[in-house]
Structures are given as C-alpha cells and as structure tokens.
Amino acid sequence: MARAQGFANVTVFDHPLIQHKLAYLRDEATSHRPFRALLYQIAGLMVYEATRDFPTREVEVRTPLETTVGRRLAGKVTVVPVLRAGLGMAEGVLEVMPEARVGHLGIYRDERTLQPIAYLKRLPKDLTAGPVLLVDPMLATGGSAAAAIAMLRDAGVTDLRMLCVVASPEGIRRLTALDPRLMIYAAAVDRQLNEKGYILPGLGDAGDRLYGTG
Ligand code: PRP
Ligand code: URA
Description:
By secondary structure, the protein is an alpha/beta fold. The chain contains 6 helices and 14 strands.
C-alpha cells in the first residue's frame, strides 16, 4: 500500500496479489467470465485496507468457557456500487463484509458528451449511520463518481471512501477539488485519458468486459 505520488488522499495498492490480478484484468484476452472473478477478488482484497480505520466498539462475549471482551464494527456499513460495473466489485466486498447494506446508483456516461446520466437511486435511509464505500472499477473523467458523491453527500454521508481499480490523474484531481474529504483507494493510477475519455493504458470498457456486452 502506498500514497499515490502527488495525491495525498489516494491510496494505491502495490500488493503483489492485486497487481498480479490487475495485469490479467487489463489483458484484452481475458473474457467476461475470468474478468468477473478477477474484479470480485481484487475488490475483496482492497476492502481489508480500505476498512482499516473503521470505528469499532467493545462488546462482551460469552465463550463456552468464560466471558471476554471483543470488538464489533460500530456503525452500519453501506456499500454503494455504481451500475453497471460497480456491481462486480460490490459482490467481492460483500464476500468479506456480508453484513454490509447495499445502495444502488445507476449512472452511465453519455458516449458523446461524457456527461453522467443518472437513472437509478436506491439508497438505505439512514446513510449517516456509518461508513459508506462507493465502488466503481473506473475513475476516468470523474463525472460519474462526482454525480454519485453528490447524491451521497446530499443524503448526509460523512465517512465516504471510494474504491476503484483504475483511476486517471484527471479523475482524481476533479474529485479532490470537488470533495477534499474523500479518500480514494485504487489498484492503479494510470497515465492519462484519451480523446474519448478512456483511461490509458486502462482496461477498456469495464461494464462491457464484465458482462460480455462489448
Ligand atoms: C463506466 C465506469 C464508470 C464510468 C467512468 O461506466 O464503470 O461508472 O464509466 O467514467 P467517468 O469517470 O468518465 O464518468 P459506463 O458509463 O460505461 O456505464 P455502464 O457500465 O453502465 O455501461
Ligand atoms: N469507463 C470505462 O469503463 N473505461 C474507461 O477507460 C473509461 C470509462
């Protein structure tokens, strides 16, 4: 785990297992079935670090032998995938934190204007009750994430972390300027965007690769 150079609020996962899986994820020869499994696995690995400072509270536990003190998560954790591709990460996060609630945000970007189009919002009511993990494998122009973050902040979320697999410097700068409190976790910060708003070297269209719709 390392701070991304020049970005104080970005944690980059230099863990060998994550980098190993990311290289397969990027490979154009990886079809939707292994792509789905890899995205799930990477999200599951990232969640350990992204939750490291989650608040906990002491609880009394009766073992078969005596009473002891343990710790439980203090708040209600919510995972919020940005549809479609975020769903592939949410599954991996839920494997590790099955008690987490799930809120859904449907957002796609218009291919021509690159502006985010929001079409679905289903969030738990009391989003202030604990940390929220926003998950989307791609942070490109940052338009989709900015729209998602605005909806979550409007709903009162204070502890907000974004997990993505590949981030662009442009997207990170945009989100940081918009929301300096946001913590971003990424498996890689890539070089740049191309003229169509795709991340280079990136991995292509994450939703299409995940669901075999390309
Ligand atoms: C992808 C990706 C992000 C968005 C990132 O979704 O999953 O949500 O693009 O791009 P941005 O940072 O420039 O907004 P897409 O728009 O392809 O939606 P889809 O997966 O539903 O097809
Ligand atoms: N959305 C994707 O799925 N991939 C990119 O490279 C940019 C946006």
